[in-house]
């Protein structure tokens, strides 16, 4: 079935779910955002974003299909050739992302494009449901791990050393943090895990984000890599963090409605924390 036709079939169910959730669940108060963000949309636009979220979740259940041309036409990946060249040369790559847009599809779309990416996340392997583990058997490159946990850092390092990209969130509250200026009077709290791992493994550190353009159309942006001179044990890691934030923030400001609560909680007004 063509993606557009499948989308049209599923949309009424997603719309009904969005209406029911809005009617029977209390809507959390709007969190203030920096002035540099574009104005928030209408209530109708917010409901449509919720509908898109439900429909995007459906793509997790047939990951092996996304590699087909009819599906890949719906996902533009800017910077893919650079990533392919790094992999061909056996260079380890850390992809730094934030909880923005349908971030849970990043690894799936990259694998569909021929890049066997995995993700480093909190929790433990036994936390994954049996259903989730079953679906991971159908992703492209099923022989390559799709996820590593914090107690599997050695395995993650070996994965990187083999020239495979590893996705790491930088808006996580786990581990060491550094405070970076974000607009006027705001601070962004960034986890240092991606920077530290890139330094330790001498890996390329590339900002990565995914934007939902609606109707199962996506755009993945792979930004400029962090300069190598900023990824040494002696360098000031806040400079690497600022590079990542400078590359990612234009997307956050252009699509503030796609910022997840996890990301927003990293924004602090008139407050800062000591940098490590």
Structure description:
- This protein is of the alpha/beta class and 276 residues long.
- It has one domain: Glycerol-3-phosphate (1)-acyltransferase (3-Layer(aba) Sandwich), CATH 3.40.1130.
- The chain is built from 10 helices and 10 strands.
- It has helices spanning 3-24, 43-58, 69-72, 80-88, 106-112, 130-136, 153-161, 193-201, 237-254, 261-264; strands at 75-78, 93-97, 118-121, 147-149, 165-169, 177-181, 186-191, 204-212, 218-222, 267-269.
- It has a 7-stranded mixed beta sheet, sandwiched between helices. The protein has a 3-stranded antiparallel beta sheet with strand order 6-7-10, with helices on one face.
- Strand 8 (204-212) and strand 9 (218-222) form a beta hairpin.
- Helix 1 (3-24) packs across helix 2.
- The protein starts with a helix and ends in a 7-residue tail after the last strand.
- The model is unreliable at 272-276 (pLDDT under 50).
Annotated CATH topology: Glycerol-3-phosphate (1)-acyltransferase
Extended strand count: 10
Whole-number mean pLDDT: 88
Helix segment tally: 10
CATH-derived architecture: 3-Layer(aba) Sandwich
Shape: globular
| SS-based class | alpha/beta
The proportion of residues forming helix, as a percent range, comes to 25-40%
Number of domains: 1
Largest pleated sheet:
7 strands, mixed
N-to-C terminal Cα separation, in Å? Answer: 52 Å
Main CATH class: Alpha Beta
SSE string: HHHEHEHEHEHEEEHEEHHE
Question: Rg from C-alpha positions?
Answer: 19 Å
Q: Which consecutive residue ranges, at least 5 long each, have pLDDT under 50? A: 272-276
Record the strand order, biggest sheet.
Answer: 1-9-8-2-5-3-4
> Per DSSP, what share of the residues sits in E-state strands of 2 or more residues?
15-25%
């Amino acid at each position: 079935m063509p993606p557009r036709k499948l989308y049209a079939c599923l949309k009424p169910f997603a719309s009904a779910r969005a209406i029911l959730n809005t009617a029977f669940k209390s809507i959390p108060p709007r969190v203030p955002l920096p002035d540099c963000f574009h104005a928030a949309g209408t209530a109708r636009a917010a409901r449509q974003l919720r509908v898109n979220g439900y429909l995007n979740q459906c793509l997790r259940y047939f990951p092996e299909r996304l590699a087909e041309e009819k599906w890949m036409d719906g996902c533009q990946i800017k910077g893919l050739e650079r990533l392919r060249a790094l992999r061909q040369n056996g260079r380890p790559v850390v992809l730094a992302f934030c909880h923005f847009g349908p971030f849970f599809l990043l690894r799936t779309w990259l694998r569909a494009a021929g890049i066997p990416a995995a993700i480093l996340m909190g929790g433990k392997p036994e936390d994954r449901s049996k259903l989730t583990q079953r679906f991971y058997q159908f992703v492209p490159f099923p022989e390559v791990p799709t996820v590593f946990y914090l107690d599997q850092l050695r395995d993650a390092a070996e994965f990187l050393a083999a020239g495979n990209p590893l996705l790491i969130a930088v808006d996580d509250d786990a581990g060491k943090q550094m405070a970076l200026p974000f607009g006027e009077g705001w601070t962004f709290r960034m986890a240092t895990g991606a920077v530290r791992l890139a330094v330790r493994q001498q890996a390329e550190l590339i900002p990565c984000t995914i934007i939902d353009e609606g109707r199962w159309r996506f755009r993945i942006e792979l930004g400029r890599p962090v300069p190598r001179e900023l990824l040494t044990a002696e360098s000031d890691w806040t400079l690497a963090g600022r590079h990542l934030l400078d590359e990612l923030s234009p997307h956050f400001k252009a699509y503030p409605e796609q910022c997840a609560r996890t990301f927003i909680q990293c924004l602090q007004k008139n407050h800062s924390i000591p940098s490590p």
